[in-house]
Amino acid sequence: MKLGSDILPSRLKSIITKLNGPNTLGNSRVFWAAFGVGLLLLVVQPLIRGSYAAGQFSLFLAYGLLGLSLSIIWGYTGILSFGQVAFFGIAGYTYAIVSLNLGGALGPTVALPVAIAVATISAFILGYFMFYGGVRNVYVAILTLVVTLVLETFMAQTAGAKWAIGSVKLGGFNGIPGIRNFTLGVGESSFSLSGSEFYWFVLAVLLFAYLGSRILVNSKYGYSLVAIREDEERTAMLGYNVKKVKLAVFTFSGALAGLSGIFYANWGNYMDPSVFTITFATIPIVWVTLGGRESLLGAIVGTVIIEWLRKWFSINASEFAIVFVGLILMITILFIPRGILPGIRDMYVFFNAHGLREGIEHGRDTIQSRAQTLLGSVGIDISDSETPGSSEVMRE
Amino acid sequence: MIPLFIADVLKALDSIGVPVSQLLQMADSIAFITLAAIGLTVIFGMMGVINLAHGEFIMMGAYITTLSINVVSLPLPVAMILGALGTAAFGAIVERTIIKRLYGRLLDSMIVTFGLGLILTQGTRIIFGNSLRSIGTPFGQVPGYTYSGYRVLLLLAAIGVLGSVYLAFTRTEFGVRARATIQDPETARAMGVDTDRMYTITFAIGSGLAGLTGALYAPSATIVPGMGQSFLVESFVTVVTGGSSVLLGTALAGGILGTINAVFSNLYGNFFGQIALLMTAIIIIRLLPGGLTGLANTVRDKLGEQQS
């Protein structure tokens, strides 16, 4: 007993030290305090806003996993993948097919690991194909986009009766309806999750995935990811097996995206080919860009903000929803390319170092000079020095 | 006049046992893929910017053409030129205000142009509604075949566009300056080339070509805000399989992909035609990371070695 209580805190401590590191934003006590408050608010949310609202919100959290997966592959490793939704959809479809075929409580319990495995294997195959084939940079982005669109074309034409796996029809554009709420366990001892319980479950999984990802990116392995993002050739020169690392992280992020897809299928109780469309394929990129692609928490926060707003738009001004998404994307890239969370961090650090007054004065100067270059770039001041490119053009 | 001339040629070919209708389909497919890609390849090949709003630029060309016929009832060729020029002007504005800041940030420029594409599609839908009244296809059918004479013209247009782009970038003063800017911007600036202007003009030309594609397909396509997306996949696939050399890559990739698409569409239907196209593209990218141009260069180098 005494021994146990001795070991436990030291283990906890070692885990906590692994959570912090140079590759994550927010390693300070202030950050963790704010994180704790935010988490607490999320935990008590169903009690305040009711089970239905919590059920709605759980979709945002499920999408958070998808955002997280893109942040790891794009923000940390520098591989822009439009294919995260492909693994998302593959896992969702697999989950639907397996769980409906088996039926009962056993169905979902078996379908969960099977679906994750199928998504992981798909990511491994695609990743192997690309990274060991020397496909790089934009070509990865385009190849993953093409694969996603192939899946859309394929799933959309599976309307006939001949497209069925077991007793489940794939259903073309209409998709597969009637997926049951999330259930775990066998027979009598099984329990089904809906509303608040589903919300808490997804929140727990997301928290676990987030903390796990923090440990990953702050480990030696995480350092090699960032090294690949910064300079692939140099990393290879230093003796890292770049292809292997890329493949591993692509596979891992495919698995995370798959998990997200399973929750999506559970949440809406259906699965259809719209998850493979080009619009849906870009939404994760919007989330991650807004929140801050080099920040794991930023990806999740961006996801929740965008999805919240998208929902608001779809209720109040549905035709402007897409315009709004496009605007957010452009404005973020042009004016806060690193995303809002890193922006907030920089601001906090800045005011902490300089004090409030000096900070505000400096901020005013910055805004003035920014505004000048902005006007210059539109053509009002033609003699500005902001010429495109030179050596930068060749860098990619 | 054109259809009659074409019909005579086709009859003559048919009489000596050439599978004319298959060839026509192939030509159609090659023309579509080449025209879909040309604007994108100019921008990507010359500037290294992936313009994800390419499909929307095509849509814009088609809209300007259709609207200027429906509303002002301009003659078709004038409306088409207007479509191309209008899109080129829009491209120049986009380059000046947005793309300019993102040189050297390839992935960022990709995302910004995607955002632009979303706004253009939805904006068009909000302003002009879900579809426009389409303008008729000129020239009627090729006599003796269930095949629109206009489509034959599209193949000629594709060849003409490729040829003009080639001439513009190799035989003119502008082309030399533009290529110098792309190859070594600093040296070009030192030699007195206004590199900023070169980027803007190149981007405008690429956009204009996209607009021209839209204008050319305006008579035969359904004019809807999302029409750009039907060009998008083909154009991207062609660019990546073609590789970095603008003209050679587009021509080779357009030829190969178009042929495969036509053959598979003929055998198993349109859906498998598209799947075969995408699969071919994936396999080509996998086997030749430099694209077809990379392969062509390797072959040329090898031949050169043997000769010397």
Structure, described:
Chain A contains 14 helices and 4 strands. Chain A is mainly α and 396 residues long. Chain A has a domain of 228 residues. A two-stranded antiparallel sheet of chain A has the order 1-2. A two-stranded antiparallel ribbon of chain A has the order 3-4. In chain A, strand 1 and strand 2 form a beta hairpin. In chain A, helix 2 packs across helix 6 and helix 11 packs antiparallel against helix 12. The radius of gyration of chain A is 23 Å and the shape is globular. Chain B is mainly α. Chain B has a domain of 203 residues. In chain B, helix 3 crosses helix 10. The longest helix of chain B is centred in the first third of the chain and has 28 residues. The model of chain B has no long low-confidence stretch (mean pLDDT 82). The chains are: A mainly alpha (396), B mainly alpha (308). Chains A and B meet through helix 5, helix 10 and helix 12 of A and helix 5, helix 8, helix 9, helix 10 and helix 12 of B.
Could you give the topology of this structure?
The complex is a heterodimer of chains A (396) and B (308).
Chain A: H1 2-19, H2 29-76, H3 84-102, H4 106-131, H5 137-156, E1 164-165, E2 168-169, E3 182-184, E4 191-193, H6 195-217, H7 220-230, H8 232-237, H9 242-268, H10 278-291, H11 296-316, H12 321-335, H13 340-354, H14 356-378
Antiparallel strand pairs in A: 1-2, 3-4
Helix pairs in contact in A: 2-6, 2-9, 2-10, 2-11, 3-4, 3-9, 4-9, 7-9, 10-11, 10-12, 11-12, 13-14
Chain B: H1 2-15, H2 20-47, H3 54-70, H4 76-97, H5 106-128, H6 149-170, H7 173-183, H8 185-190, H9 195-217, H10 229-242, H11 246-268, H12 270-287, H13 291-307
Pfam families (chain A): BPD_transp_2
Transmembrane segments (chain A): 30-48, 60-90, 110-131, 138-156, 198-217, 247-267, 320-341
Membrane topology (chain A): Multi-pass membrane protein
